[in-house]
């Protein structure tokens, strides 16, 4: 996988619990970095690094308003994960159907 591909990888971006929490915070509304940072015991600089990873994966975007950056969630990028998980839904549906047929015999 190329360096660019890793930076844009949605799976890599959501692998960290802090970044998943950031996405949950942004799900309710756009927020400035100051409000996002209040929810973590890590430094604002560390939160900015997490936001940068989410931006590279195109899960969030930032728009400068005055002295603050306002972050917006792009949840449609999570569709890639949903699509991947659907495969496993089918896998388990098939396994459960096989198990049911064994019990019915």
Automatic annotation (TrEMBL):
Is ATP-binding a UniProt keyword of this protein? no
Q: Does the keyword Transcription regulation apply?
A: no
Gene3D superfamilies xref list: Winged helix-like DNA-binding domain superfamily/Winged helix DNA-binding domain
Judging by the UniProt lineage, the source's domain of life is Bacteria
HTH arsR-type domain boundaries? 1-93
Q: Which InterPro entries match?
A: ArsR-like_HTH, HTH_ArsR_DNA-bd_dom, WH-like_DNA-bd_sf, WH_DNA-bd_sf
Any Pfam family from its record, for instance, is: HTH_5
Q: Which UniProt keywords apply?
A: DNA-binding
Alphabetical list of NCBIfam families matching this protein: HTH_metalloreg
Official protein name in the record: Metalloregulator ArsR/SmtB family transcription factor
């Amino acid at each position: 996988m190329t360096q660019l591909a890793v930076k844009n990888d949605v799976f890599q971006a959501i692998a960290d619990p802090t970044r998943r929490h950031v996405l949950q915070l942004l799900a309710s509304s756009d927020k400035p970095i100051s409000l996002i940072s209040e929810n973590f015991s890590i430094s604002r600089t560390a939160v900015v690094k997490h936001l940068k990873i989410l931006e590279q994966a195109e899960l969030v975007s930032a728009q400068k308003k005055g002295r603050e950056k306002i972050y917006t969630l792009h949840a449609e990028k999570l569709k890639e994960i949903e699509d991947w998980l659907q495969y496993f839904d089918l896998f388990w549906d098939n396994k459960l159907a096989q198990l049911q047929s064994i019990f019915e015999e």
